[in-house]
Design brief:
Elements: H1 10-17, E1 21-24, E2 27-37, E3 70-75, E4 79-85, E5 94-104, H2 106-113, H3 126-133, E6 151-154, E7 162-164, E8 178-180
Antiparallel strand pairs: 1-2, 1-6, 2-5, 2-8, 3-4, 4-5, 7-8
The structure holds a DNA duplex.
DNA sequence: AACGTGATCTTA
DNA sequence: AAGATCACGTTA
């Protein structure tokens, strides 16, 4: 398994990432919740909710690059969130990592997240996931399959999880591009964006 | 339902 | 230059 296995569409990549093992600075975790994101209107997967929708810019350029890289962005001024870039070089698509089960390095994860959080909450939510694994904006663009990289990914079997709408997006709010492995308390509850149009009125 | 928080983007 | 937006998380 290598970055070539991610040269696929974002929905397939999302399924491939369910159950994958993510390692970040002393913590390894199993990915249990992801969201697929596409690209501009004239690309293969038009997606108004994607950062890449309006073409490459300073923030999102990694999304347009080769697969197997990490795309990080800062959200709401506070949190760092992480995506795995998929599709061919030059085509924008990525999968947001929303939740994971911490397998090893629990003490490290707890020291980063604070002793008060429950074990199932260590990497619950995209911001918390990055916090638990020590992922920062400096990791933007890093090669997840380079053994020297501080953040690495090991792909497993293709898993088909449950699917539903993405959390918190105001565009394409009904599109069922969030996927998760059922039965894990790490998976976030669904929250529709208050700015999204009523269900059924969005593409 | 509200809000803290700041980078990024759109609009002018 | 100004204003809106936001792939969040916590508290209520």
């Amino acid at each position: 398994m290598s970055s070539a296995d991610l040269e696929i569409d974002p929905l397939s990549a999302a399924r491939l990432l369910l159950g994958a093992e993510l390692t970040g600075r002393g913590v390894t975790a199993t990915v249990v919740e992801v969201e697929a994101y596409g690209g501009p209107a004239d690309g293969p997967w038009p997606d108004a909710a994607a950062h890449s929708y309006r073409g490459p810019g300073l923030r999102n350029s990694v999304m347009f690059g080769p697969p197997g890289r990490l795309y990080t962005y800062r959200s709401h001024g506070i949190h760092v969130c992480a995506n795995v870039v998929c599709a061919s070089d030059g085509v924008a698509a990525a999968v947001l990592l929303r939740a994971a089960v911490v397998d090893t390095g629990l003490d490290v994860a707890w020291s980063r997240r604070g002793a008060a959080v429950r074990e199932s909450g260590l990497a619950r939510g995209p911001g918390n996931l990055c916090s638990a694994l020590g992922i920062t904006m400096d990791d933007n663009g890093t090669d997840l399959f380079d053994p020297r990289s501080p953040v690495r990914l090991r792909l497993g079997e293709l898993r088909v999880g449950d699917a539903g709408p993405r959390v918190g997006v105001s565009k394409a709010a009904d599109r069922p591009w969030r996927m998760w492995l059922p039965g894990h308390p790490e998976v976030s509850a669904y929250r529709r964006s208050p700015r999204a149009p009523a269900p059924g009125e969005s593409d």
